[in-house]
Amino acid sequence: MPAPLRIGLAGLGTVGVGVIKIVQQHADMIAMRAGRPITITAVSARDATRDRGVDLSGFAWESDPVALARRDDVDVFVEVMGGHEGAAKDATEAALATGKDVVTANKALLAHYGQALADSAEAAGRTIRFEAAVAGGIPIIKALTEGLAGNAIRRVMGVMNGTCNYILTRMEDTGLPYDVVFEEARALGYLEADPNLDVGGIDASHKLSLLASIAFGTQVSFDAVEMEGIGAVSIDDIRRAGDMGYRIKLLGVAQMTGRGLEQRMTPCLVPCDSPLGQLSGGTNMVVVEGDAVGQIVLRGAGAGQGPTASAVMGDVIDLARGIRTPTFGVPAAHLTVPVAAHSAAPAAWYLRMRLVDKPGALAKIATKLGEAGVSINRMRQYGQSDGDAPVLIVTHKATRDDIQTALSSFKTTGVLAAEPVALRIEDV
Amino acid sequence: MPAPLRIGLAGLGTVGVGVIKIVQQHADMIAMRAGRPITITAVSARDATRDRGVDLSGFAWESDPVALARRDDVDVFVEVMGGHEGAAKDATEAALATGKDVVTANKALLAHYGQALADSAEAAGRTIRFEAAVAGGIPIIKALTEGLAGNAIRRVMGVMNGTCNYILTRMEDTGLPYDVVFEEARALGYLEADPNLDVGGIDASHKLSLLASIAFGTQVSFDAVEMEGIGAVSIDDIRRAGDMGYRIKLLGVAQMTGRGLEQRMTPCLVPCDSPLGQLSGGTNMVVVEGDAVGQIVLRGAGAGQGPTASAVMGDVIDLARGIRTPTFGVPAAHLTVPVAAHSAAPAAWYLRMRLVDKPGALAKIATKLGEAGVSINRMRQYGQSDGDAPVLIVTHKATRDDIQTALSSFKTTGVLAAEPVALRIEDV
């Protein structure tokens, strides 16, 4: 049997320990599948003394991940430390500079420095694999770059932050408002130290920007993601959307439009009976639309020790087999700089507003919509409990610009009792 | 740029034409992704004169697919003719014997001769890729052999015959009986020339046997699949199962049990709100359970020109990139001969029966179940329209042997008005 592939593992948190468990428990199975043994040579973490429940005695210890990355007895540098500056970035660069392939779960690092790192990898004849960085255990990077490589991709969509999906599902199930469920999630340890990474949509947008790059052959452009978190989603909207047959999801969408690459991570309505609409709790889902294959849906755990370590090991086993696809699917020099197109694709919209109790109020709103070129598909007016009339409108397809024009013009009518809510209905 | 990868394409039916379309329409995109151009050198089909709507003028024509497979100017032999004997087999063997890799959509050929062909491929230093043979455009072979390679697979399940799922869904939607919907499907061209390939479960079992091989590292053992078609599924059972919160699917299940490898392709009940239960129409779905990753669900079109050609091209592009994983995921010589275990895994069961209108009838049935060691989870007796009483029972987990013991003993009670129906409820 050929020589082992030797891992240097930086980071002994949940994911790193998961990687060690798989390597130790499945050594024979993995050697059979990979065609050679896979071993861990050296590890690195902040605290060398903590009991992590796995046997570390066979591994060399490096306190500095950069030193780990430079070791001569490491073939693949596995980075599961996290953080997009500092040690993670330095160590990844050091690994590439000294001729190692890199396997990483670090979405933030790649979202910010993906192009430079891919350039460095190719200059060294190496690659960076990052299946674990997007949608946990779901093999979506592999599906896009390899399995569906014969397709021009039309659109990639996904629910890729389990915490947000948990919060939205829990609000729907319990009727509790956002703030209460947010605190529940925090108490359960579901939130990052900076919760805005989750509920602000940043973490999911990191992932979306990576998917967009490999789907469309463009340089990663995280800064161009139109991003809106779930903090403003009200229990009212969850209920009203449900009445109309929709669920609200923090949905990432990337598509190439006539005006450029559109990347959005925003609360959207999706039909209750669609795969995305049926997704509850912390599970992730990615939907890919290709010109030949049509729609492919992948669903699975988006986080956690086992799923993330599974993704890391899939990448490591590929490298052991000699599979070395370019980092973003095509050579880094051929990745194009995308033109950012914000919400260019038209969509149906859900509009919720409260109108004052005056004759002709609804007619005024309808007139303004018509003037903005937005036509009404469905409209529902609810009983007036407090004098104001809750009104829901589902529009036919319209651009965001047209919707914003209409919303602005509503203000001149004097019939709005509160700021209206507009949410996109994604066609899934 | 390196030399092109040259395809010899055997079969110019729907899928073959789909492959030509992708190669012609996306030549630049594919060359970028594969790192080299992919061209078609020569083609083969029965009728050289028919207009297929694509330009064949640039390709050499071989009337004999074996001659095509042997050509010196072919690197990869793509077999989309179908049929598991005769020309398809001969040509595949000829391609391997003359040092070509093979990409095939031919599930029947691999289900019957997979081991011998994998042996031949490895003897020649080549591989056989068959993403298109299982679940159409869904990249499930790649997911299992590569993306999830760090997992010990617990179970693989799937709805992998779109025609059967169409028929079952249509029966539920319309209330029409099986025979009527079967004739509808035939008129719509959804059925194979031999419909038993579809409704008898043979086609889906071919696919299941391939998934079982790569999931568990075993030799393909199609003959060991426990197979039952959908011909006996009644509209009554579809309705009654629905009352209890289940849908009936022709579900393939492969799992390694303490007694050996269990492979089943049978009508099963699954919860309406599970991903499998929500699958309607001709779509396919495969569910994989791995020890690290948990449950991964993949969904997409299981047939058709674009999806199947997409899968073929994914394999071809991998070969162009130099990716040459062993045919069934591990070297052919290491595939083990599985011990076949028929329905070893216990399950809950759905039992439907009609009891004669006599006092104590239900008690007699319940007693017999208890004697067979089967306990009742839920029971429902319907109003008696014609003297006999329809009774539904959902059991707690029991083996098929115990259920069959119970069913046999029912006959001695004298209270059955008709043959009882027993369907497995798969835990999904």
Automatic annotation (TrEMBL), chains A, B:
Active-site positions, per UniProt? K207
Pfam families membership: ACT (PF01842), Homoserine_dh (PF00742), NAD_binding_3 (PF03447)
Q: Which GO biological process entries does UniProt record here? A: methionine biosynthetic process; threonine biosynthetic process
Q: What class of enzyme is it?
A: oxidoreductase
CDD domains, alphabetized = ACT_HSDH-Hom
Gene3D superfamilies attached to this UniProt entry: 3.30.70.260, Dihydrodipicolinate Reductase, domain 2, NAD(P)-binding Rossmann-like Domain
What residue stretches are annotated with the ACT domain? Answer: 350-428
Superkingdom of the organism of origin: Bacteria
Which keywords does this chain's UniProt record carry? Amino-acid biosynthesis, Methionine biosynthesis, NADP, Oxidoreductase, Threonine biosynthesis
UniProt keyword Acyltransferase present: no
Kindly list the positions annotated as binding L-homoserine: E192
What are the binding positions for NADPH in this chain? K107
Per the record, the pathway is: Amino-acid biosynthesis; L-threonine biosynthesis; L-threonine from L-aspartate: step 3/5; Amino-acid biosynthesis; L-methionine biosynthesis via de novo pathway; L-homoserine from L-aspartate: step 3/3
E.C. number, please?
A: 1.1.1.3
Q: Which PROSITE patterns match?
A: ACT
Q: Which GO terms describe its molecular function?
A: homoserine dehydrogenase activity; NADP binding
Would I find Amino-acid biosynthesis among this entry's keywords?
Answer: yes
What PANTHER family does the database record attribute to this sequence?
A: HOMOSERINE DEHYDROGENASE (PTHR43331)
**UniProt family annotation:** Belongs to the homoserine dehydrogenase family.
Question: What is this protein's name?
Answer: Homoserine dehydrogenase
Give the species this sequence originates from: Falsirhodobacter algicola
